[in-house]
Design goal:
Distance between the termini: 42 Å
Number of domains: 2
Number of strands: 2
Order of helices and strands: HHHEEHHHH
Strand order of the largest sheet: 1-2
CATH architecture of the largest domain: Orthogonal Bundle
Number of helices: 7
CATH class of the largest domain: Mainly Alpha
Radius of gyration: 20 Å
Structural class: mainly alpha
Largest sheet: 2 strands, antiparallel
Helix content: 55-70%
Strand content: under 5%
CATH superfamily of the largest domain: Winged helix-like DNA-binding domain superfamily/Winged helix DNA-binding domain
């Protein structure tokens, strides 16, 4: 999905700054299944504003007053709905992981580095579980959000279980 559509989706939840949008992909409700960085978010916001799909607003008078907030327009919501309903076949789910790439070449790394990578990844998965559980605990969690959060939780738990179960073998340790 392109960055413009991703931004429209975040803005459907309410006005947000570029930073808020980035956080939605980093540690928010979209973090376990898609991503977007500042390098794609800000150009997308600029194009969306130019197309009249979003509008920029000044801050609310708080300490965030200097930040520019973006809000979805009716035209933007219509564009999002149209894109979501697009009958074109979806591409495959892609798993891009620097962690997996590195461990593919575990035979070239020192034992300590492999152990450190696995420990870091376990900690990351545990953080993701906290985020997903936060989404699931919200009273306003919609059915689609719940479905995807539960799927994300299951995927993360499976990955975490795989690390717990199989890391000793990769590290050459006995069970």
């Amino acid at each position: 999905m392109d960055a413009k559509t991703l931004c429209l989706g975040v803005l459907l939840k309410g006005p947000a700054t570029g930073y808020d949008i980035r956080k939605a992909f980093e540690s928010g409700p979209f973090g376990h299944f898609c991503g977007a960085g500042f390098g794609s978010i800000y150009p997308a916001l600029h194009k969306l504003e130019k197309e009249g799909l979003i509008e920029a607003r000044a801050g609310d008078g708080s300490k965030r007053a200097t930040r520019k907030f973006f809000a979805l327009t009716r035209k933007g919501e219509t564009a999002l709905r149209r894109e979501l309903a697009n009958p074109a076949p979806l591409g495959p789910d892609l798993m891009r992981s620097e962690f997996m790439f590195r461990l593919f070449f575990a035979h070239l790394m020192p034992h300590e580095r492999i152990a450190a990578l696995i420990a870091e990844r376990k900690a990351l998965y545990k953080k993701k579980l906290v985020i997903v559980e936060g989404v699931l605990s919200r009273k306003d969690c919609r059915p689609g959000e719940r479905f995807i959060a539960e799927m994300g939780r299951d995927l993360v738990l499976t990955a975490l279980n795989h690390l717990e179960k199989n890391a000793p073998g990769l590290l050459g340790e006995k069970d």
